[in-house]
Write a structure and sequence with these properties.
Elements (H helix, E strand, L loop, with lengths): L41 E14 L2 E8 L2 E7 L6 H6 L5 E10 L14 E12 L16 H6 L1 H4 L3 H23 L3 E2 L17 E3 L7 E3 L5 H9 L4 E10 L10 E11 L3 H19 L4 E2 L5 E3 H8 L13 E2 L1 H4 L5 H9 L4 E7 L5 H13 L6 E6 L2 E3 L1 H6 L1 H11 L6 E7 L1 H18 L7 E2 L1 E5 L4 E4 L4 E4 L10 H7 L3 H5 L5 E6 L2 E8 L4 H10 L4 H15 L6 E7 H9 L29 H6 L12
Helix pairs in contact: 4-6, 4-18, 5-17, 14-16, 16-17
Length: 618
């Protein structure tokens, strides 16, 4: 905030001009506006006292506002000096004075106003500040709850203030690009019907209809599909979404924003063609020197799991896992060989670690795995013509050499192994891949690596309920349509069925998810029926959309991209609270506004609600 160099042309608000008969009541210029061309001018500034410095009788005040920072000088002979002696950090003051050049050797090239200073003739205190509970100057490491309680102070910090302004610039860029791509921005309802699928709804009681509730939308999914059925063709919205979820590191509690998109008369490739340039363009605009993927790869979901151990892989990490099961089948490494012989589902995956060929590193990785709740992490490291470590010795030189050749490894490298049913270990293998890449500094920090993850499974096996369930979005069209659903006559075939479902991933984060919709009523009933949800359930939960499908629905599809995650990546923040104005803490408490809070008995009576306290745990 204090560095106005990055503010470009934001240094002059609309009301800056001098009024007839004198200066504006509070300012003729902003604190980021003065330049060498203003030397000799009488000006008026207002802002916050950033800091006060005493240099041998001269007082220097750094005055800050949204647009930048100006150095102010008050000497003992000035009428402003007595007031200058009183002011403290974060007081709001007005200063009149004459602009002058800074003395030789004192120019600050880091500030846009660094060639000049304001010699104060008059200072007026507009608002004094109490002693600050958290500092504003610098980037202090203060407890997060304290920062959230005094968020209005926290937002004055330069980095956080700049993050919020960049967020506005990013959303403005998205809107401009969507408009250029001939999409239309619609606003969908905030008060809607409860939809039991997905996360928990936030419910809103109806006073007019006692005992009934609205819900805040988890997403505008049904409304945007209804817009396509209504004939509007290309929709987008920067949409607020509300989900009563348990805290997650990658999502703020309560609410978040997404770029919501839907298109009519499209196939999957049409969605990619329309939206890839928009997202690429936004990243390029705000990349600040980092490279951005052009021509995103299309990675099938199954391939992403097998190569990276994740459906949101960080492609800055060059490590690709490989299946090396056959090298262990019938080998002298009896642990893996026995597992392979006993269960045909067992596979052995290798995680190559170029440059990791030391016992110290391998032991460190083994200790990390134990910290993750695993018994350990098997490994081989290659040195002086041998495959070192227990696995290498038991596997033997020929098989170890075959593993090394398959993975393209050499002396000084290592390889780690995960074995078992991949459905149960792939996430751990993916974490191990991430850990190896980080420890060996293989990750390209100067890049945004974007990709489409495609061909998500339509269904998965729910082990807890012993039944078939939707794998992701239940509204997606199965590949092959109704015919594919009818011909999948076994659980195995159903689990193998793919959907027109896709994600956008960037640097290890899922930043968007979408699909081509199942717009055929018979196919929708069939798809939900396979998941154990009969026609009556479909009509009860999704009645509006199901009815609409029966009156002429165009083929349509779209996606939703997380604004918060995109901004977090682009500003280099580690925490979503660093790019949001007034976030809750991880316990879903708004510490600034003291929400959630109790309401009065009168309010509850008006809503026909009685609060039942939860039972105390024994």
């Amino acid at each position: 905030m204090a560095d106005a160099k990055a503010q470009k042309d934001e240094t002059k608000p609309q009301h800056d001009q001098a009024r007839p008969g004198g200066l504006h009541r509070y300012r003729s210029h902003t604190c980021g506006a003065l330049r060498a061309s203003d030397v000799g001018s009488t000006v008026r500034l207002s802002g916050w006292v950033h800091r006060v410095r005493d240099h041998g009788g001269l007082l220097f005040i750094d005055l800050r506002d949204h647009y930048g920072l100006t150095q102010v000088v008050a000497d003992p002979d000035s009428p402003a000096f007595k007031t200058a002696e009183r002011v403290r950090s974060e007081w709001v003051i007005r200063i009149d004075g004459i602009v002058r050049e800074r003395p030789e050797g004192t120019v600050n090239k880091e500030l846009s106003t660094g060639e000049v200073e304001l010699f104060a003739s008059e200072i007026e205190v507009l608002s004094a500040a109490k002693e600050l509970p958290i500092p504003v100057f610098g980037e202090p490491d203060y407890p997060e709850d304290l920062r959230l309680q005094y968020r209005f102070l926290d937002l004055r910090r330069e980095t956080l203030h700049a993050n919020i302004m960049k967020r506005l610039a990013i959303t403005a860029s998205i809107r401009r690009r969507m408009d250029e791509a001939k999409f239309f921005e619609f606003s969908t309802p905030i008060l809607t019907a409860s939809s039991p699928e997905g996360a928990r709804d936030f419910l809103v009681p109806s006073r007019i209809h006692p005992g009934k509730f609205y819900a805040l939308p988890q997403a505008p999914q049904q409304y945007k599909q209804l817009l396509m059925i209504s004939g509007f063709d290309r929709y987008f919205q920067i949409a607020p979404c509300f989900r009563d979820e348990d805290p997650r590191a990658d999502r703020l509690p309560g609410e978040f924003y997404q770029l919501d998109v839907e298109m009519s008369f499209v196939e999957q490739e049409d969605v990619f063609t329309a939206l890839e340039p928009v997202i690429t363009g936004v990243f390029e605009e705000f990349a600040e020197g980092k490279s951005v993927t052009k021509g995103w790869p299309r990675i099938p979901h199954a391939e992403a799991i097998a190569k990276y151990g994740s459906d949101k892989p960080d492609l800055r990490n060059p490590i690709e896992m490989q299946d090396v099961t056959e090298h262990f089948r019938g080998s002298g490494f009896k642990i893996f060989a026995g597992m392979i012989e006993k269960d045909p589902k067992v596979r052995v995956w290798a995680i190559p670690a170029k440059g990791g060929g030391s016992r110290a590193f391998c032991d460190r990785m083994n200790g990390w795995a134990q910290g993750e709740g695993q018994p350990g992490l098997a490994y081989i490291f290659f040195r002086e013509g041998e495959a070192a470590g227990p696995v290498g010795k038991n596997l033997g030189p020929e098989r170890s050499g075959a593993v090394r050749d398959q993975l393209g490894l050499k002396e000084g490298d290592a390889v780690f192994f995960a074995a078992g049913n991949p459905e149960k270990f792939y996430k751990f293998a993916g974490l191990a891949r991430d850990r190896v890449g980080t420890e060996l500094k293989l990750i390209d920090e100067s890049a945004f690596k974007l990709a489409w993850i495609v061909d998500f499974p339509m269904y998965e096996w729910n082990e807890d309920e012993k039944k078939i369930d939707f794998s992701h979005n239940p509204f997606s069209m199965p590949q092959g349509g109704l015919k594919a659903l009818e011909e999948a006559d076994s659980d195995e075939k159903l689990i193998g069925l793919k959907a027109y479902q896709y994600d956008i991933v960037c640097n290890g984060f899922e930043i968007a998810s979408g699909g081509i919709r199942n717009h055929v009523p018979e196919a929708m009933i069939k798809a939900f029926g396979i998941a154990g949800l009969g026609p009556e359930v479909v009509e009860a939960r999704f009645g509006g959309m199901y009815r609409a499908f029966q009156y002429g629905a165009p083929p349509h599809g779209g996606m939703a991209a997380g604004i918060d995650r995109m901004v977090m990546l682009l500003v280099g923040a580690k925490n979503l609270r660093e790019i949001s104005l007034f976030p809750m803490n991880q316990q879903a408490n708004d510490l600034l506004m003291s929400a959630p809070s109790e309401v009065s008995p009168k309010q509850l009576r008006e809503l026909s609600i009685r609060v039942i306290a939860p039972e105390k745990k024994a």
